[in-house]
Amino acid sequence: MSSPSDQTAQRRLATVLCADVVGYSDLMAQDEEGTMSRLRDLRRRVIEPGIRSHHGRLVKTVGDGFLVEFSSPVEAVRCAVELQESMAEDARLSAIHPLRLRIGINLSDIMIDDEGDIFGDGVNVAARLQKIAMPGGICLSGKVYEEVRDKVPYTFEDRGEQEFKNIGRPIRVFSLLKGLDLSKGVVSHRTVVPIQDRPSIAVLPFLNISQDPEQEYFADGIVEDIIAALSRFKSFFVIARNSTFTYKGRVVSVQQIGQELGVRYVLEGSVRRSGKRIRITAQLVDAVTGGHLWAEHYDGVVEDVFDLQDQITASVVGSIQPSIRAAEIERAKRKRPENLDAYDLVMRALPHVWSLDAEANQEATWLIDRALVLDPSYPLALSLAAWCRGQRIVYNWSVNVPDDKRETLRQAQAAAALAHDDPFILTVLGAALTITREYQRAASMLERALALDPNSAWAWNRSGWLHNYRDDPEVAIQHFEHSLRLSPFDPMAFNCEMGIGCAHFIAKRYDLAALWQERALSVNPSATWILRTLAPTYVFAGDHEKARSCIRDLLKAYPEIRISDIRQALAFSDEVMGRFAQGLREAGLPE
How far apart (Å, rounded) are the C-alpha atoms in residues 535 and 519? Predict the structure, then answer.
């Protein structure tokens, strides 16, 4: 689409709202006529009247999206909130796949042509903001936030400055968090999830009330271990740590959390550490009624911390499902480190391990190596060290792939020998065996891990990747979707979306493959390794210009990368890897 010339264009300051339907291509593939009919109906009943009521002008609709101009940022934000609430109410009442929107809002000088269409950098920014919004959510630029912050009854999350493609400057981004009408089925910027039939629980980050703010990692470590223990009970549905930690530092009602995560129970608490003394308070809350089931405090010294965690776990289990035998509780305990300083270092490393970022990987490795000096037989530290090396291989950060492969497998096997029934450690060994292409042994390890802990979102994720590597894309998609259900707000969720995109590539559904990989990259723009598979996907989807653009961006992040390096890093079958290599070649990447 060409822009209007300066002679025919008018300029004015305006608030631009850009929206589109989440997963539209998938919905069309499932039910083309039904999806089109529902979208037309929603435009007639909800979208167009909502825009008019807030004095907006519907500029145009394009497929599954629409563009709106407002003279007032406040009216634009109010309109966006009401649209999301109305869409959520419609989804709640719908018996079929609901339609959900992503919305981006920007305030800027724009150009308007004779036909009323709008153009310019301000419109492009709104479109980029829309792409990074959560399903059912709203993202706005810093300019909009400054105009509305004291004029609307909503809470916003500052997501910092972000770089967007073809935008020549960083944009400050805010997400609308709270204030949406709960009676219409909207909770924050997320959808309501149905509660599981079996007992379901989320363990929230414990509050650090020590005088030393540096003890934050210690409180996080306690929660990490309680989640790991609870996850071992097959009769429970336990939300993964990476999703519950998205609530850290936020004031959110227990009922709201229960609705967002689809759980019946919430465990919350605090940790106070002073020298050797430690006090942990914990309370179990019914997320439906808000009633407290029990509250207790546990006192001891730091050396007793694991016993205190086990007591809390036993209290939770006993309150929710008293029939679980003491022997099962005993089996749920993870092998503890001999050295508490090593434990501290590992807890400090964990956020860096999961960031999937090259610099964070180096920091995590440094901390874990220090822990292993203090306690060489600490299984979790060995396992995390192996996974950090595995990341370096998979994401083309390694300077010596053969050595890293050998050491990854050695450390993963050493950890499993020390803790052969720990599901996390078995998952890491399964991942290591996948990297070394020992697929049968990898499958055995992942099956054992999931038998021990069916709540492990990460084990389901790794199983999804293994099925991709074994040319089984349909099962891979099922496992990635299950991982997303266990940890819906996980910062690692983009990795599942990436896996689904690769599964569609394997199945030669290239348009869907591009859609899912684009989604993953929009959520985590720093994950430039995605471009290694997105570029060839564009080639096979027929968009060579986008493919070449991907390669240009890839070479900025990896100046020396070649097709042979990518072949060495990825573990797809020869046939699939051949297609990726062909696409990379046609997109312009050297051999």
Answer: 14
Q: Which helix (H) or strand (E) holds 495?
A: helix 493-506
Contact criterion met (CB below 8 Å) for 321 and 199: yes
CATH fold of 335-454, please?
Answer: 1.25.40
CATH topology of domain 200-331: Rossmann fold (3.40.50)
Asked whether 415 and 389 are in contact (CB, 8 A), the reply is no
Report long-range pairs for 368-371 (Cβ below 8 Å, ≥24 apart): 370/345, 371/337, 371/339, 371/341, 371/342, 371/343, 371/345, 371/346
How confident is the model over 134-169, as pLDDT tens digits?
Answer: 777 889 999 999 998 878 877 787 777 777 777 778
d(CA 120, CA 108): 9
CATH topology of domain 10-189: Alpha-Beta Plaits (3.30.70)
The 3-state DSSP composition of the chain as helix, strand, coil percent (nearest 5) reads 55, 15, 30
**Superfamily for domain range 466-591:** Tetratricopeptide repeat domain (1.25.40.10)
For tokens 């909130």, the residue is 81
- Select the more confidently predicted residue: 573 or 277: 573
Identify which of 179, 135, 130 has the alpha carbon closest to the alpha carbon of residue 157.
179
User: Considering only CA atoms, which of 136, 358, 333, 78 is closest in space to residue 231?
Assistant: 333
Half-sphere exposure at residue 15, Cβ-oriented, CA atoms within 13 angstroms: 27
Virtual torsion, Cα 125, 127, 130, 131, nearest 10 deg:
-100
pTM: 0.55
In angstroms, rounded to a whole number, what is the distance separating the alpha carbons of residues 369 and 363? 10
DSSP 259-321: HHHT-SEEEEEEEEEETTEEEEEEEEEETTT--EEEEEEEEEEGGGHHHHHHHHHHHHHHHH-
